[in-house]
User: Fold 2-hydroxyacid dehydrogenase from Mesorhizobium kowhaii.
Amino acid sequence: MTKAEQLQTVAILVPGDFNDHAIERIDSTFNRVRIERADPALVTDEMRSNVRGIASFAGINAAMMDALPNLELIASFGVGYDSVDVGHAAAKNIMVTNTPDVLTEEVADTAIGLLINAVRDLPRAETWLRDGSWLRKGNYPLSRLTLRGRKAGIFGMGRIGLAIARRLEVFGLPVAYHNRRQVEGLGYQYHPTLKGLAEAVDTLISVAPGGASTEKAVNAEVLSALGANGVFVNIGRGSTVDEAALAAALANGTIAAAGLDVFADEPNVPKALLDAPNTSLLPHVGSASDHTRRAMADLCVDNLVSWFIERRPLTPVPETVNVKAAG
Ligand code: DGY
Assistant:
C-alpha cells in the first residue's frame, strides 16, 4: 500500500461545522467521519473502533476522548485550545495540535481595528452616515476619546501580543505588558501583576489564553486601576473577564470604553454590554478572513498528515509535546 492509500484508511472524526477547505483536504486524504457535535452519546460502535484522529473547531472534553479508545491525535483548529482537555489528552497519550503563527498578523490587525473603533466610535459614526443622520442632523459629534497620548498595556505577551505591540509602537504609543513570566530580551516594561500593569497604563489589551489560571483575571479591581480614561480591548478569550464587573465599570464611568471580540458564553453576549453606548463589539472574528482561515485549515490538516505518515506532529501544544506515537 502506498502512503496515500494508507491515509485513505485512517478515520478522522469531524464534529459539527468545520472549515470548507479543511473538509476538502480531509476528504481527499483520509476517511472522514462526520458527527453532529462532539458528544460521546453520538459515538457509534464503528466510530469507537475506527476513529484515530479528530479535526475540530469545537472543544473536546475527557468523556469524548474516553469514547474513542483508538484516538491518537486531536488537531484543534485555532491557536487557543482552552476548550480541549489537554491534561486528559496527555494522560491518555493523545497528541493535541493547534494552529499558531499563521493567524498572528490577522488577529493583531483586528485588535488594532477594535481599539480604534472603541476609542473613536467609528461604528456609530458609520451608522450616522447610513441612517441619514448626517443629512438630517449634521456632523457626527466629536469623539470623547483619542488614541493620542495613550499608554498601552498588553496582557499576554505571546506571538499575537508582540504583533499588537509592534503595531502600537508605530502608532506612537508606549507599550508595557504583563505575563506569567517576563519575556527575556524584550524591551517593553514588564509588570509582575495585572493590576500593576492596569495602574501604569490607560489602554489595556488582553490577548491572554483561556483556562483556570486566567479565569476572570480582568476584574473590578483591575478595571478600577485602569481608570476613568481607560479603554479595555479583548481579543483573547471571554473567560478572562468578569463581564458583570466590566458592564458595571462601563456604566458607572470607572473606565471609558471597551472593544470586545470574545465573550464568556459565545454566541451569547450580555445585554448590558450590547446596550452600553461605549462598547464596540465583534462576533469573534479575530482570525476570520478567508486567507487566514485557509492557512489555519492547511496547518490543521498538515498536522494530521504528518502524524499519520511521519508519526510526529508539526505544531504540538506544550502540554502534549512528550506524547509519542505508538508503532
Ligand atoms: C483562535 O485561534 O483561538 C481564535 O480565537 C479562533 O477561535
